[in-house]
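[agent] plan:
  1. take the single chain provided in the ticket
  2. run structure prediction with default settings
  3. attach structure tokens to the ticket
  4. add a short note for the reviewer (M.T.)
[agent] executing step 1
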Amino acid sequence: MQTENKLFEDLSKVASSAIGTLAGVGREAQDAARRRAREFVAGSDTVDRDEFEAVKANAAAAREAVEVLKGEVVALRAEIAALAAKRPAKA
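[agent] step 2 finished; step 3 output follows
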């Protein structure tokens, strides 16, 4: 009796080759999908995280400046009201 069967050996080689080929096709499909995703993201109007953080910091600084200016306006209005109260009424 033969210990090695040529048919099983050939089937084993074909199966190994098919698995290797399928793995290669899978890698190529994955690379193509990644490439397309990068192209999609690059083509869209997205903002980098650094740019977003910079604009966010600028907006926070602007809000703080507005609050300071609001306080100054309130103080100036109070000063104007105090000056108006000190001035004698016109007859």
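[agent] step 4 note for reviewer: Residues 1-46 form one domain.
[agent] ticket updated
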